[in-house]
Amino acid sequence: MDNILRIDMGAPGGPKATMEPVGAYAGLGGRGLTSVLVSKEVDPLCHPLSAANKLVMSPGLLTGTAATTSGRISVGCKSPLTGGIKESNAGGQAGQVMARLGYAAVILEGKPLNDDLHVILINKDGVHFSVDNSLRMLGNYATVDKLRVQYGEKVAYMTIGQAGEMKLGAASIACTDRELHPTRHCGRGGPGAVMGAKGVKAIILDEAGTTLRAAKDPVAFKAAGKVFADGIKKHAVSGQALPAYGTNVLTNILNEAGGYPTNNFKTGQFAGASKISGEAQAALEVKRGGSATHGCHRGCIIQCSGIFNDEHGNYVTKQPEYETVWSHGGHCGIDDLDVIARLDRLDDDFGLDTIETGVAIGVAMEGGLLPFGDGAGAIRVLEEVGKGTPLGRIIGSGAGIVGKCFGVERVPVVKNQALPAYDPRAVKGIGVTYATSTMGADHTAGYAIATNILKVGGFVDPLKTEGQVDLSRNLQIATAAVDATGMCLFIAFPVLDQPETFQSLVDLLNAFYGLSLTGDSVVALGKTILSAERDFNTRAGFTAVDDRLPRFFEQEPVAPHQVTFEIKGEELDKLYNW
Amino acid sequence: MELTVKLFATFRDGRFEKAQLDYPPGTTLANIVDALRIPRDEIGVMLVMGRHAELEHTPAPGDTVAIFPRIGGG
């Protein structure tokens, strides 16, 4: 990963690619590279859909190596949804191939002069551009089906669906998995809209003629890799629970803990939770000949995903994960896994963030567009996005816009990004993360659920205010660093609990790059990334007021614990205290 | 005293999902998990009426006790 590939989509005469050495961005990868680059090179006051924005795609520092579970790709830009900096990462095959091709980053810049849809092929010989307007307003599934006839099965596809073409705030970028299903999305914050604004429908990454990236010290790398993999396998969460039940194993525990947002955050428990739980979902998947254990990319040993088939045994979608099941399930009062799987399939096809879209539908329910619990209605409403109708464009623009259009007061967004699947009143640590993350409301940015609910990495009582800011800060720093490595965030469970697994991750980086990083260096890397993101947001006009939850969380107690979010603003403002 | 006991994930295997069970007064969570033959070191989280509780906790009559193995997601 010695090079950066810049593609100027606005060059006279058509797109133009330039290769340059990684230079000042050496030693960065994934979120580290995207955020530092966006913060340095993108005018924070630019319009996110303008020529001045850049779409930066970067594999992690260990992506494309033999290290297990390291296949994440980060996408960064100024977010059309939040107006702040955005990093959204996904699994699938794209990251590994981009890394093997030698690119630390591929950057889309500028803006085309017309509305042609471009397809970009990147292989070992370089970059090839073509125009294919026959793909216009095709979903991700149909787009990949069409492209695979020409480009084959042994490549990775990054595509946008209708939402990206319409440049909507919830638009994602799909990455194909090992079966070429476009199911792994850089979802949050609208990166698909930026790709659409650049006039790019698809990027095809062909690894033919490439090899695994080679470590500087292969012996030490192999040894560290074994300790790391053993650590993942022996931890109960990454070694047993996630493969068996997937992330949706969380539904029951959040519901029991009274932190499962139901009917647009009206209450903290859902009567239908057990019907859509991970236990029920895994059993249904196996019964229908799908699978409850599936990896999104080559080399993953956690295998948290699965295959969801319909009642006739036909593939519908990958196993909808916890946040997706929640946003379309409990949040909308829907307790039917088939409806939820159908909605997930539509999100993936249209190219929509499942969290933003589900929350938007729930807010529309609150606004009276359809009743809570109306599964058939939710499918109909979502189908509007694919048709590009005015209603579809509103839904695809995210929960904040839907709230305005339907006159709703209870709109669960921070920095205009929808809250995920944990009520911040009953799980206060995650509320701190939602409020203060540079990304807008984002659970992955500092996953306090681990410590508040799951007792991983210690325990901080979710219902108390004490210790939550410190907890969220430490997690946000650690997460920023993990997001730079290309490792799946689920390695954090063993890394938080097992010192030798954490050390083996540091050892992997050292052996690969010939470095002598320590735990402190990892913390410093996390802080560097967060500081760059925070600096961008400040220059984009964000202030302390933007680091707050919507007021209703401070005013409306949530059942069953009858608690509000009472961590004070001045405490939240201490998060970035370094 | 009667308690509602709920089990999740692998703890359901060979046991149950939800049961109303009768216990002598003063029963602790430790007594409950031992009676269910759940190895203590496999327990991730125990919730009593939605609040985290430890093995020495004594539930009140009518409480709901939820017992989870070590799980995670996100």
CATH architectural name of chain B: Roll
Q: Taking strands numbered 1, 2, ... along the chain, how are they ordered across the largest sheet of chain A?
A: 2-1-6-3-4-5
Outline the biggest β-sheet of chain A: 6 strands, mixed
CATH class of the domain at 3-206 in chain A: Alpha Beta
The low-pLDDT segments of chain A are none
Distance between the termini of chain A: 31 Å
- The radius of gyration over CA of chain B amounts to 11 Å
General description of the model:
The complex is a heterodimer of chains A (578) and B (74). Chain A is an alpha+beta fold. Chain A has helices spanning 30-41, 94-100, 140-151, 162-165, 191-197, 218-234, 236-245, 250-256, 278-287, 322-328, 337-350, 354-366, 375-387, 390-395, 399-405, 428-436, 449-452, 468-485, 492-497, 499-513, 519-539, 552-555, 569-572, and strands at 3-8, 16-21, 55-59, 73-78, 85-90, 103-109, 118-123, 126-131, 155-159, 173-175, 184-186, 200-206, 291-294, 305-309, 315-318, 413-414, 417-418. In chain A, 39% of the residues lie in helices and 14% in strands. In chain A, the strands form 4 sheets. A 6-stranded mixed β-sheet of chain A has the order 2-1-6-3-4-5. The longest helix of chain A has 21 residues, at 519-539. The model of chain A has no long low-confidence stretch (mean pLDDT 97). Chain B has 1 helix and 5 strands; from the N terminus they run ββαβββ. Chain B has one helix at residues 29-35, and strands spanning 2-7, 18-22, 43-48, 51-52, 64-69. A 5-stranded mixed β-sheet of chain B has the order 2-1-5-3-4, with no helix packed on it. The longest helix of chain B is centred in the middle third of the chain and has 7 residues, at 29-35. The N and C termini of chain B lie far apart (37 Å). The model of chain B has no long low-confidence stretch (mean pLDDT 97). The A-B interface holds A 235-238, 240-242, 244-250, 252-253, 256-258, 274, 278-279, 304, 321-323, 443-444, 447, 449-450, 453-456, 459, 461-463, 489-490, 493, 560-561 and B 6, 8-10, 12, 17, 42, 44-45, 47, 49-52, 66, 68-74.
